[in-house]
Amino acid sequence: MSDDSDLTSRRKPKSRRAPKARTRGQRVRRGILFTLLALVLAAGGTVYWLYSQLDGNIKSVDIDKALGDERPEKLPTAGQNLLVLGSDSRAGAENKELGGGGAVSGARSDTAMVVHIPEGRSKAVAVSIPRDTLVTRPVCSKSDGSDLPEANRVMFNSVYSLAGPACVVKTVEKMSGVRIDHYLEINFAGFKDLVDAIGGVTVDVPQDINDKASGLNLTAGPHKLNGTESLAYVRTRHGIGDGSDLGRIGLQQQFLMALLSEIKSQDLLGSPASSYKIANSATKALTTDSGLASLTSLAEFGRSMNGVDPGSMETIMLPVAYDKQDRNRVVAAEPQAGELWEAIRTDATIPESAKKSPATGG
Question: How does strand 147-148 pair with strand 182-187?
Fold first, then answer.
């Protein structure tokens, strides 16, 4: 009896401890699973919040709805055409300060380029439209719903301030016969912040620049420019050439190539959320057509451009001649301008004669 009692007494503690050990282990494993699940959900929620915020930063314009069907025909082999505008909007405190204070109201298209990406997307060409070009502005709808009548001999950069981006697209399509597929606009402050966010952009300054109006002073040679310096560089007109808009177009084109090279090297378009700081700066600055107005659409467009080498992108100024009535203005030079637009419309090689501008700004 005593032996049996001893055996029973030894077994009882063992039978009581085993369930407790299993329960404790289950609780630990269950706790780990719940923690991991919470972390996954939190990470997913954070990613969703980041994407939602970045998507919400992008402003858009429904170009197709605004322009309707009265547009150039989209040819099967026409590639892709993107209108890029640099807006000198004074909206917001930072834009106002960068734009030179309160002396100028409203906004204008300070920089305008038609970027043509041929079929296959292995190369591209950027055509700069001088802001002082006299154009025929078509009938456009204003933001209040009223119509802005057609007008001849108006400055190209005034179209934006009078009727907004859709009218700029319509004006470019009218003067070129080129169907614009996408629209992208960046403002003063956004340009500055984007350059600062990516760590600056290196450019090879072609000649000494001493612009008293902007305070930009650079010697010829390579310089890594921050955001404020970059903005002054692409906007300087008194520090180079004849002081007109034509002189600075070369600097704008050069800077665009350097900026695109930096963006491509950091894969900012292919993976726009890889760096939240950069993506936040970029998306806050952007206004696009509705087809590009999301991170997903921008990333897809960026990945489709991976085959394009910014170093081989051709940059051309729209051939212009000094206006006979006002030497401070220019007009499209014919037949060069017509040949240039025809080549872009048909995705053909641009003839050398279409790259020569009678007015150079030198």
Answer: unpaired
Check the CA dihedral 180-184-187-191 and report its sign: negative
Residues 6+ apart with CB under 8 A from 91: 107, 187
Sign of the CA dihedral running 349, 176, 250, 87: negative
**CA nearest neighbour of 200 among 239, 170, 226:** 226
Beta bridge partners of 60: 288
Residues 264-276: tens digit of each pLDDT: 777 766 665 556 7
Question: Could you tell me where the beta strands, DSSP code E, fall in 259-306?
Answer: 286-289
Within 10 Å of residue 52's Cβ, how many Cβ atoms?
11
Residue pair 156/194 in contact (Cβ under 8 Å)? The answer is: no
Which of helix, strand or coil describes residue 77?
coil
Closest CA to 191 of 63, 331, 86: 86
pTM as predicted: 0.78
Confirm if 202 and 222 have CB atoms less than 8 A apart: yes
Q: What is the pLDDT of residues 302-357, one digit of tens each?
A: 777 777 777 778 889 999 999 999 988 999 999 999 999 999 998 889 999 999 99
Q: Residue length, the chain?
A: 362
Distance CA 220, CA 13 (A): 89
Q: CA-to-CA distance for 258 and 140, rounded, in angstroms?
A: 35
Helices 227-235 + 245-265 axis angle, to 10: 140
Helix (H) or strand (E) holding 134, with range, is strand 134-137
Run of H or E residues at 12: helix 2-57
